[in-house]
Amino acid sequence: MALITTGKPLMRDLEQHGSLALYVPLEGGFEGRYQRRLRASGYDMMAITARGLGDVAMYLTGVHGVRPPHLGKKEIRTYFVPPMVSYNLEHLSANSKGLVLWILEGGMLSRQEIEYLTKLPQLEPKVKVTVEVGGDRQFRWTPLTDLLVSA
User: Fold this and answer.
1) What pLDDT sits at residue 72?
2) Element (H, E) at 20
3) Average pLDDT per 10 consecutive residues for the chain, totaling 151 residues
4) 3-state secondary structure 53-96
5) pLDDT value, residue 150
6) Which UniProt keywords are listed (predicted)?
7) Which domains, ranges and CATH numbers included, belong to the chain?
8) Which strand (E) or helix (H) includes residue 79?
9) Contact 117, 103 (CB under 8 A)
10) What is the predicted pLDDT for the residue at 130?
């Protein structure tokens, strides 16, 4: 892997497929370079972790309720949170190409959740999805739909 990468093959595949499964070196560092390249080419970034997402579809595109722990001393309340992707899409700058949703620790997502993430770019054309699904010696990627075929 070259020390300085342009990121053009990643951008080309991301625009072509809409969603990518990423295999990143466990020591880190390479994903930050690709994120910078995507931001420099006109995309906005939203990095989240797959842990604790719950219902992925509602968290990303629908209003959902959140109940913080009440610790037995307060009444149970539900707070409603706006959808993360829809909210960020509404606030994109005029010259932005779109929103890249970068999901960390994606190896713990279920098959159904990965299927939804492959369909999300078709539902929202300005959204591109990258999911870190595992480690490797070098930074590489495949279309997220290939991950469904092998599972």
Assistant:
1) 77
2) strand 19-24
3) 68 94 87 90 93 88 85 82 91 92 93 94 94 90 85 52
4) CCCHHHHHHCCEEECCCCCCCCCCCCEEECCHHHHHHHCCCCCC
5) 60
6) Membrane, NAD, NADP, Plastoquinone, Quinone, Thylakoid, Translocase, Transport
7) 8-150 (3.40.50)
8) strand 79-81
9) yes
10) 96
